[in-house]
Design goal:
about 140 residues
Length: about 140
């Protein structure tokens, strides 16, 4: 039986790839995929990380539109690089995966604690909570 996929590790690799592509652009896709492939992870994690990275990267415009609509007084370009890409990955996941919303948001917060600034977890929590409510069709409480 194959081991269960550690989705936290998948998210970490996908985030690193998203940040690289955010800086270097699409021309770096092959290098980023090579970076993932050379990671010391099992093939299941590598395959999921490649998939999540490419999906989140190709759907970043849709994610950015949702983020702008919910992140008051912030445009995506002004967000810190790591925050922006944690949010993009989480928004893709909120839109496309069957993972419970609370798990997606909690994972994004944990990754922010690992990779971003001290203020990032709170910011990411607030934005993702608003995006999740919007995606569920709930009115904003603001």
């Amino acid at each position: 039986m194959a081991p269960a996929v550690d989705y936290h590790r998948v998210r970490r690799l996908a985030l690193q790839g998203l940040c690289s592509l955010d800086v270097q652009g699409e021309k770096a896709v092959d290098l980023v995929l090579q970076f993932i492939d050379e990671s010391r992870e099992n093939e299941e994690i590598l395959a999921q990380a490649r998939h999540w990275l490419l999906c989140a990267y190709h759907e970043r415009d849709e994610a950015d539109a949702l983020l702008v609509s919910q992140a008051q007084h912030w445009n995506v370009a002004r967000m810190a690089l790591v925050d922006r890409n944690i949010l993009r990955l989480a928004v893709w996941e909120l839109r496309t995966q069957n993972t419970p919303k609370s798990v997606i948001i909690n994972e994004a917060i944990q990754i922010a604690k690992e990779f971003a600034s001290a203020e990032s977890p709170r910011f990411i929590n607030g934005v993702l909570d608003a995006v999740a409510r919007l995606l569920r069709g709930e009115a904003s409480t603001d």
